[in-house]
Amino acid sequence: MLGQNLSKVQLSDMFSAEQRIRKVTPPTPLITMEPLNMLLKYQVYLKAESLLPSGAFKFRGAFNKISWLKENYGDNVEVVTASSGNHGMAVALSSRLLGLKATVVVPSITPEIKKECIRSFGADIIVSGATYDDSFLEACRIAEEKGCYYVHSVSDVEVLGGQGTISLEIIRQLPDVEQIVVPLGGGGLITGISYAIKQLKPKTKVCAVMPEHSAVYAKSREAGRLIELREAYSVADAVIRKTGESYLFPYIEQNVDEIFTVGEETIKKAVRAGLLYGKLMLEGSGALPLAAAMEGKIDLHMKTVLVCSGGNIDQAVLQQCLDAPE
Question: How many CB atoms are located within 10 Å of the residue 275 CB?
Fold first, then answer.
């Protein structure tokens, strides 16, 4: 696909990405909040990716990729992508910052707040299909028809380089980190983080968390091969996927120590706990690591970082989480 780079990932990709990203945004905070520590009965550290310019970690990979495209193909580059919301917002904002034209295809399940932000950031938005997988097919058709450069949400070396910068920041902010817990949807975030940390601090444990009804990589690990789910759904809309990525699956299998799944009610409770006790607004996907901690699936005796991947939550969904039973 025009623009997509499926080369072997290198640690140098992360350091190159960091140089580009630092031009527009500083490292995200790594914080520990005593009310949340008291709730969990252990100290945890929150990597606040929700405080990036587009409200989610996706800004790292999108900005790095689109910067790379502009550096290599000039100022008239046009990009297109498919996204359940956060990646689309990041592509739209990155393109605006770099003076490029962008088209974003989203599924019908994308929260209105994310659609509104994509529009306000200046991208053309097209709603197509019920899931990300449907939108992906339409975005590929548009890319081929118009000759645009496709910015893949997860399977791309420059995108992975951007996401891997999170590990570089964590190592500087918490040099004795023992464990990093990461949301897992399409696989770009966990691949970038786990690859970088295993290269630099190989004894650090990396855990991934998926919703129990959208757990394609967990099921694939059990099967010993990449599989496709019949259906996928979750309040954590940003990580809903029926299929995994063949490019990423080997990296995940090599570098991710454990993959956990969590229930829908716990995800809602984690969104509420993140807001009330962690003082961070988190969407469902961003609250997955906290949900795993709340279900007792994470060994919190270790010095642990929970990657809070994003905070772009729809108002109605937020209210649903706040109203969830204790």
Answer: 18
Does residue 325 register a pLDDT over 80? no
pLDDT in tens, 188-217: 999 999 999 999 999 999 999 999 999 999
Task: Let me know: does 80 contact 142? Beta carbons within 8 Å.
Answer: yes
Backbone dihedral region for residue 55 (phi beyond 0: left; psi -120 to 50: alpha; all else: beta) = left
User: Do 312 and 283 form a contact (C-beta atoms < 8 A)?
Assistant: yes
Paired tokens of 300: 């919190």
Q: At what angle do helices 58-73 and 157-173 cross, to 10 degrees?
A: 130
Q: For 310, list phi and psi in degrees, rounded to 5.
A: -170, 160
Tokens describing residue 26: 């500083």
Q: Residue 224's CB: how many other CB atoms inside 10 A?
A: 8
Q: Which residues contact 15 (CB under 8 A, 6 or more apart)?
A: 168
pLDDT digits (tens, 9 = 90+) for 34-48: 999 999 999 999 999
